[in-house]
Each structure stands twice: as structure tokens, then as C-alpha cells.
Design goal:
This protein has 327 residues and is of the alpha/beta class. The protein is 39% helix and 17% strand. It folds into two domains: 2-153 and 193-218, NAD(P)-binding Rossmann-like Domain (Rossmann fold, 3-Layer(aba) Sandwich), CATH 3.40.50.720; 158-191 and 221-271 and 291-326, UDP-galactose 4-epimerase, domain 1. The model has no long low-confidence stretch (mean pLDDT 96). Belongs to the NAD(P)-dependent epimerase/dehydratase family. This is NAD-dependent epimerase/dehydratase.
């Protein structure tokens, strides 16, 4: 099977690339050739995704069993993909987002039939518009789209709301015995999925014609409170968890950039029903509990001090929110 990943070396897609190679897929990456993260066994097409002429040139002699775009975020980018790959692939997988689901949800139990509506986050609204465009192309011209909606998936990122992700700020504070900010009262329910577990479900969709015209989320079944998430991070570090709870509204007033990621994503409780993906990929099973997965993430950060980016702005924000909360 000949598969093209547009992207393929990111937080989620690296594990999918590695598993694809392990299972015998002829995997190609399309990228600018500037990343140092090369995966053994992957062939590379070098082009800037925003250079249409260069794209058409490097793709001219290829047809694909499946194309996956990991880095399309707007309808304009998706329209480009429709034009490039119509008649050139048997399947096109669009990476959407579980943040597209109704926020706040009417029910914490999320299925693929949960409405798509996020008034808080432009990122999510753009992804919804992409889905709509692709499904229209499927209806009108038979474009063979499969939609995948990852939720909060981690590997080499710290999966918390403030001072995390590619930053090391919150981890640095915890190691120094300083308190960190937790949004809300920490009791809302959340789901974190390790990228290697996600890959098991995702790669099971590649080449599956039954998935054409359908949408799937792929997540862990482990449900944790945010208090438990922070406590398990502290346990992995071998430190005491010093948590200060600040309402999401207050955090967003301090910095409106958090409106989407908090009010549009991490504030409400969610529990994902994975019945649909398991109907098609019955062997899909997440086997990495967060308490174990976060240990490997922290080991990755600690293996190279240059990865341990500490943000002065995030530190200042937490210090001021904590001081105000405790006053």
C-alpha cells in the first residue's frame, strides 16, 4: 500500500509514521525537507505545501492508496487538497479536531453524532468548515474523504492548559516547589491519549473503504479529573503537587488567547464513546495510562536541556493569578 503523509513528523503523526513503516506500508512524507526528525524507512517528497507549482511538479508521477493531510487547518488549504488529489488517491484522510464538537456539550458523553459547534475557538470553526467542504466534495464528485478527530493527544508535549504543551514552564515550577495554576476547580473530567495508542486506531483506518464519507474520533477510554492529571505529573516528577485553582473565566480575562483552548475545549467535562472506531478496527485498544505515558514525555524533555523552554510571560501570568487568588 502506497501512502502519503503531508507532514508526518509531529506530536501525533510521528507515531503513526513509525507504525505504518513497521506494518509494511510504503510511506512517503511531503515536507520542506528542513526537519531533523527523519524516520527510517520513509521516502520523502520535498516541496513547500504553499507552493502550488512545486507541489504539482513533485506529485505529477504519483498515485496513492491513501493521502493524509496532518497540517491542513483552513478551507482554502482543503480546497487545494481536493484539487490536487481528486482522481489521484483512493482515500483522503483529513485530520480534524474533537474541539469541533459542541462546546459546552449538552452531554459529557461524546459520540460522532454530537453536533459540531464551537463558538469560542476560530481554530475549531475553521476545522468544521473544512469538514463541510470535504463532505460536499464527497457528495458532489465522490472525493474519498475520511475524517479523523483527535482529542488531547500527547507524546513529546506537556498536555496541560497553562505553562505546558511545548513549554516546560509548569514542570519547572513544580520541580522548584512553586504552585501552578489549574483551571476551574480541577474536578471536570478529561481524556488524554498517548500518540502511540492513537496510532493503533488511526492506522487501522488506512485503506478501509468502509470509512469513506465517515468521521471518527480516536481517544483513550481513561477518564481523569484535571486534579488527577496534575497529581500524576507531580508523582512522575517525585514532587508535591501545589495546585491553585483559578476559574477559566478569570484566566481568559487575564489573557483572551485562552478563550478558545479553555472555554472552547478544556473547561467542560468530556467522555468519548469509541464504539464507532472499534466497529471498524476491533483490535484498537489504548494501553498507555497517563501515569505511565507522562513519564516517557518527561524523560524526553529531560534528555535535552534545549527542550526545556521556560516562558517568562507564563511565569508572570501564574504568579499574578496565584497572588490575586490567595489575597
Amino acid at each position: 500500500m502506497k501512502v502519503l503523509f503531508i507532514g508526518g513528523t509531529g506530536n501525533i503523526s510521528t507515531a503513526c509514521s513509525c507504525l505504518a513503516v513497521e506494518t509494511g506500508i510504503e510511506l512517503w512524507h511531503l515536507n520542506r525537507g528542513k526537519t531533523g526528525n527523519q524516520i527510517q524507512g520513509v521516502k520523502t517528497l520535498v516541496a513547500d505545501i504553499n507552493d502550488r507549482a512545486a507541489l504539482e511538479d513533485v506529485l505529477a508521477d504519483h498515485v496513492w492508496d491513501c493521502v493524509v493531510d496532518w497540517i491542513a487547518f483552513t478551507p482554502e488549504q482543503v480546497q487545494r487538497d481536493i484539487e490536487l488529489f481528486s482522481g489521484k488517491t483512493e482515500q483522503f484522510i483529513f485530520i480534524s479536531s474533537a474541539s469541533c464538537y459542541q462546546s459546552p456539550p449538552d452531554s459529557p458523553v461524546i459520540t460522532e453524532n454530537t453536533p459540531l459547534n464551537n463558538p469560542y475557538w476560530q481554530y475549531s470553526r475553521d476545522k468544521i468548515a473544512c469538514e463541510e467542504l470535504l463532505l460536499k466534495a464527497h457528495k458532489d464528485i465522490g472525493f474519498p474523504v475520511t475524517i479523523v478527530r483527535p482529542s488531547h493527544t500527547y507524546s513529546n508535549v506537556i498536555p496541560i492548559a497553562i505553562g505546558g504543551w511545548e513549554e516546560y514552564t509548569a514542570i519547572d515550577r513544580m520541580k522548584r516547589g512553586l504552585p501552578v495554576v489549574v483551571h476551574g476547580d480541577g474536578s471536570s473530567l478529561w481524556v488524554l491519549t498517548h500518540s502511540e495508542d492513537f496510532a493503533q486506531g488511526f492506522n487501522g483506518l488506512i485503506g478501509r473503504q468502509e470509512s469513506i464519507g465517515e468521521a471518527y474520533h480516536i481517544t483513550s477510554d481513561e477518564v481523569l479529573t484535571w486534579n488527577q492529571i496534575y497529581q500524576q505529573i507531580a508523582d512522575a516528577l517525585g514532587v508535591e503537587a501545589k495546585l491553585v485553582h483559578v476559574t477559566s473565566d478569570r484566566i481568559c480575562r487575564y489573557d483572551p488567547e485562552y478563550i478558545g483552548p479553555l472555554l472552547g475545549d478544556k473547561t467542560a467535562s468530556v467522555i468519548f464513546d469509541n464504539s464507532k472506531i472499534r466497529q471498524l478496527v476491533p483490535d484498537f485498544q489504548c494501553t498507555t495510562p497517563f501515569a505511565e505515558g507522562i513519564k516517557t514525555t518527561l524523560e524526553w524533555f529531560e534528555a535535552d536541556p534545549t527542550r526545556q523552554t521556560v516562558s517568562d510571560a507564563a511565569n508572570k501570568m501564574m504568579d499574578e493569578l496565584i497572588a490575586s487568588e490567595l489575597a
